[in-house]
Design a protein that fits this description.
Length: 581
């Protein structure tokens, strides 16, 4: 019921189609139920041998043909409405789920498997579609058929109808009991399928690493274990749900038997005619048939609701902190950045950055160095507001970034990361990502500035070569050059370079460093680097350790101090054994 309540707003939007579907279902069901009445009348026209009212029988047959045609058209229109309802609801669910992913805080995406999220949006949505389609198609018609059949039976002989009504609750009780048991099993099946999708997505995307470390057998065992659990819960869910149909069929057979016995007694005593008994037996069949169909519908709906619950969990996840109504649009950032008493940690019980202070003047180049885990990349995440600070504030041009629109803040930064990302499309599309209306000539100039032009020209179709999101056919260094070209094209007022040349050879790196030097001129720049030789020209070098700035200054002054920075710098020129390079 909780899931249904959350799903109701999606269904309510298509009230018109639901009402139309109900009307067509009612017409279809009522006309179908009227056919046994005509059948009974036709039987009563056969009085005895050589005494048959053929003219009346032919008239009844003509009526039957018209009714059957109208019923067929009604069912066709009902199915059109049901298809519209089902697939529009699933479309809305998928849209909302994907839109919520776009505004979820990064901590949620970091804490959940990407494959599991994909499973919710794709596989679970398909299951919802199958269940809803069957539900709208058979549930409406089934309920109306049951109610209509009771009305017709009562109109023929209410005493026999009472027998049917008394046995009906047994069928409902059996179906409800099994449905409650199967819901939890279908929910477990959906969760396990999501876990399996996550593993497959992760292993396929990182197959090189799996093979490089010889983890194939371990991964296979893990997959077998998840697959085994999925088999087990799927079998249980299918087994228990399959009990619904035979159990309700058994109860429905009791209904048919009761109608046959009591009807025969009434026919013998003159309570009803033989034709009416034939109609009653036909109604007994039609009355029990929807129960069998609804039992199958209930099984599918249990699966659909379990999957809908997982999608709605995602849709209802708490989004990132919304922007203020009067949030400032940062149009022309001057590059004045300050961090005041900043506190931040990914986990409340594990402190990372505490009481952090930093003031950067426009145009300064700030290098951030330190051992792994000291908070360098975290600081970048805070500057871009991928995460919000727990305490203190970060200001750009004197304005707290929490009062600046995220889009304008992030547009003011040009960002090149160690991890490259390309999307399906041409080389042109990938470079143009930051500037949608950039001309081909501007893109080529940016590629030349980033030293990417040479390898792009050697590609089969040059700038029109299509690449996948994995960058098939490109080396890691070439992919990074494309990411650098994006920033070269947009040239925002502030730059973030997080190990931007980590995958590039030394010769190309020298060219890139010259390009970066031109690009950083007059722009506030934050540079994260492990190779300390690349940051000698930085105006300020921040040496971080355990979330704190322990040293600060330029390259010469920090070496002169002979402190932690000097140790880090000199360690690059000594083997672990202590022998100089």
């Amino acid at each position: 019921m909780k899931v249904l309540k959350k799903l109701f707003p999606y269904i309510k939007k298509y009230s018109f189609f639901i009402i139309a579907s109900l009307l067509f279902a009612a017409v279809s069901a009522v006309l179908s139920l009227y056919v046994p009445v005509l059948t009974g009348r036709a039987v009563d026209c056969i009085i005895k041998v050589n005494d048959v009212d053929f003219s009346r029988i032919f008239e009844i047959i003509r009526q039957m043909i018209v009714i059957v045609l109208i019923t067929a058209v009604s069912q066709w229109l009902m199915n059109i409405c049901n298809n519209r309802i089902t697939y529009q609801i699933v479309r809305d669910l998928r849209n909302d789920a994907f839109a919520r992913i776009e505004i979820l805080p990064l901590k949620y995406l970091d804490a959940h498997s990407h494959g599991e999220l994909v499973s919710r949006v794709i596989a679970d949505a398909d299951q919802v579609a199958d269940g809803l389609l069957m539900g709208f198609t058979q549930l409406f018609t089934g309920i109306i058929t049951i109610l209509g059949t009771l009305v017709f039976m009562v109109s023929i002989q209410y005493k026999i109808a009472l027998v049917v009504i008394c046995i009906t609750p047994v069928s409902l009780f059996v179906a409800a009991f099994i449905a409650k048991k199967t819901f939890s099993m279908f929910k477990l099946q959906s969760e396990t399928r999501g876990e399996q999708t996550a593993l497959v997505e992760e292993m396929v995307a990182n197959q090189k690493i799996v093979q490089a470390f010889g983890q194939e057998e371990k991964v296979l065992k893990k997959f077998d274990e998840i697959n085994g659990r999925l088999e087990s819960c799927s079998l249980k869910a299918t087994f228990f749900s399959s009990l619904t149909n035979p159990c309700t069929r058994f109860v429905n057979s009791l209904v048919y038997t009761g109608v046959g016995v009591f009807g025969a007694v009434f026919a013998v005593t003159g309570g009803i005619s033989v034709g009416q008994l034939a109609s009653f037996l036909s109604y007994a069949n039609q009355y029990t048939k929807p129960f069998n169909e609804i039992s199958g519908v209930v099984t599918e709906l249990q699966n659909a609701l379990a999957c809908a619950g997982r999608i709605l969990e995602l849709v209802n996840e708490t989004p990132q902190v919304p922007e203020d109504a009067d949030a400032v649009v940062l149009e022309h950032a001057g590059g004045n950045v300050s961090l005041e008493n900043v506190d931040f940690s990914y986990y409340k019980d594990q402190h990372l950055i505490e009481n952090f202070h930093l003031t950067v003047k426009p145009g300064q180049r700030v290098a951030i160095v330190g051992p792994t885990g000291c908070g360098k990349t975290t600081l970048i995440n805070l500057l871009m507001r991928f995460y919000d600070v727990d305490g203190g504030s970060i200001r750009v041009d004197g304005e707290d970034i929490r009062h600046i629109t995220r889009k304008s803040l992030r547009t003011s930064y040009g960002m090149v990361l160690q991890e490259t990302w390309l999307r399906q499309g041409t080389i042109l599309d990938n470079i143009r990502m930051g500037v949608k209306d950039a001309s081909r000539e501007e893109i080529i100039e940016a590629a030349k500035a980033s030293s990417a032009h040479g390898f792009i020209k050697r590609l089969p179709d040059g700038y029109d070569t299509v690449v996948t999101e994995e960058g098939s056919g490109l080396s890691q260094g070439q992919k990074q050059l494309l990411c650098i070209a994006r920033v070269m094209l947009s040239l925002p007022p502030m730059l973030i370079l997080d190990e931007a040349t980590s995958s590039i050879d030394t010769r190309t790196e020298l060219k890139i460093q010259n390009a970066f030097a031109k690009m950083m001129k007059g722009r506030t720049s934050f540079i994260v680097a492990h190779r300390l030789s690349t940051i000698k020209e930085a105006d300020i070098i921040l040496v971080m350790k355990d979330g704190h700035i322990i040293e600060q200054g330029n390259h010469k002054t920090l070496l002169a101090k002979n402190g932690f920075y000097a140790t880090l710098y000199n360690s690059q020129f000594v083997y672990p054994s202590g022998i100089p390079v």
